[in-house]
Design a protein that fits this description.
Elements: H1 3-11, E1 27-36, H2 40-49, E2 56-59, E3 83-87, E4 90-95, H3 102-105, E5 108-114, H4 120-125, H5 131-134, E6 140-147, E7 157-166, H6 170-178, E8 189-191, E9 206-207, E10 216-222, H7 226-234, E11 239-242, E12 248-253, H8 256-261, E13 270-277, E14 280-286, H9 287-300, H10 317-327, E15 330-336, H11 352-364, E16 368-373, H12 378-390, E17 400-402, H13 410-415, E18 428-434, H14 459-465, E19 472-477, H15 489-495, H16 499-502, E20 510-513, H17 517-532, H18 535-541, H19 553-562, H20 566-578, E21 591-593, E22 596-598, H21 600-614
Helix pairs in contact: 9-17, 9-21, 10-17, 11-17, 11-19, 17-21
Function: D-glutamate cyclase that converts D-glutamate to 5-oxo-D-proline.
InterPro entries: D-Glu_cyclase, GLUCM_C, Putative_hydro-lyase
Domain D-glutamate cyclase-like C-terminal: 296-610
Amino acid sequence: MSSSALRALIRKKNHGIENTSGLAAGYQQANVVILHKSLADDFEAFCHANPSPLPLLYRSQPGEWGCPPLAADADIRVDCPQYCVFKDGLLVSRVSSLMSYSGQLQDMVSFYLGCSFSFERTLQKAGVPVRNVEQNCNVSMFRTSLQCRGVGQFQCPMVVTMRPVPEEKLDLVAQITHLTPLAHGGPIHIGDPAVLGIQDVSRPEYGDPVALGPGDVPAFWACGVTGVEAVQSCKPPLAFTHSPGCMFLTDRQDSSVFASTSTPEPDQCPLTFSISQQPLHFSVASKAVVQSIRDLEKIIGEDPGERGIRALFVQDELLRSCLSLSHSSSVLITTGFPTHYTHNPPEETDGPPGAIAIAATLQALQKEVAIVTDHRALEMNQRIMEDAVKKGVIKTAVPLLSYQGNSPDSALYFLCHNGDHKKPRFDHLVAIERSGRASDGNYYNMRGVNIKHLVDPIDDLFTTASTIPGISTTGIGDGGNELGMGKVKEAVREHMPNGSLIACDVAADFAITAGVSNWGGYGMACALYILSLCPIHQRYLHKGLGQPHPPTQDQHQAWAASLPSVAKEEEMLSILVQHGVRSGKTGTLGMEVDGLTFHPTHSDLIIKLRDRTSQRK
């Protein structure tokens, strides 16, 4: 039936329609909020401040029953299957008609807000099962722990809908719904409901429980029932809303119909990626940004020493690691490979410059950052950090820590406040060119020399982190004996010289293979910068809250200034040499400049990275 025919049926009040999910296919549906005219301006501003849950379709004049831009011959007093009546913010009744309130409605304003029911039929036509329609029930709606941007008396949490989606359909669902901002746009979260403060998906605050099918992933959209929460927070003497799930049916065609039949531009085409299994968490970025980061991954994977490191490569590890880091708030970085075991200090130059580059970009993105290193090298690294700040390699000194693992639960207490796994200090650990423990418990350089006596058991932090929900880990390496590269240990054993002996046995969630580990750090910094400029990712990162604004000029300048450069690498290598640190890589052309070995291939790579990154500005 057409939407106008359905409205006519609803007016008869013997229709038996319990909710409008699945009805009026191809047409927009609308949430409804009706308030006294004295509150109208603030509520409109509240909608504009929170466009994902409250996409405003139309604001009526006081006492206006119709909504000409949305539907002909409409009467908001009788055109919804059911209404909620609120007095002083409390729900006092549910009614099928507002005709008895016609006198009060003369001084009230109706707001029509977009609804996700609008795109359900389009999803079905695209081959996506819509479980609530299949189960002949209302969609599940949940009050979250996310606070909307408040305006005046309107201060409330956001409400979301949950739809189970088969994992292989996530990209398609994200692409169809992203192009329907007036129906809440794309998902604001995919994965564990607890991330939104939802403890039990079988007990929604509004609507009905919807069962997940085999292979389904819970996906969440901002929801117009946020308007109901707004009414309750404002506590007006009298207000009305639609009853959740009982929408106003418009005559306006659903824009998702056009979205599903057109090929979106790469900048407007979201792709989804799993970034965590415990808890389950997916992230989103545009197709254009994904390709840019894949280009960076290819650049850092160049093999100057022709050691066959491509055998260790796993596609999209850089992308998924950086998506995870983008969602993080506190990051712990570790580096240090004492390959020159007969010298003092035994460290090599590969690792610290990349670690500083990562830290600089994370700082610019307002993340908390710390570095953990071997206790014997702590003072030297503190001096290196001070010099890096003085030379402008990094803006602010990063706190330096050491870990020695003096007791069985040392790692847990280091990673979590009071040893409570529900209160982690860090949500991501990054190891770059850090000695990794082999299967026999020793640590080896590429020549197979055991350097265990020079290495603190920082690996324990990674193995313990794997047991703590909410902490992800990344390893960056160029040979397979680095911390975190245990994820590809079988390939290391098969393809790398001395692989069966030196292969790191400790796996990270993400293992990034680079021609030189520093390059992996530089690539990570550039990828994080690219993600910061992706509107699709930023909207998802902020759960659809607030207006989607591009970065300010000051933000943009701070992010760009944090990126690696040839000048910064030269300064950093010079600082390391001044503190006695030696190069650990062979097989690349080098040139001696004032006692400093500098490889032209490094500068070429940085230039490539920056050129590719600048294309995303």
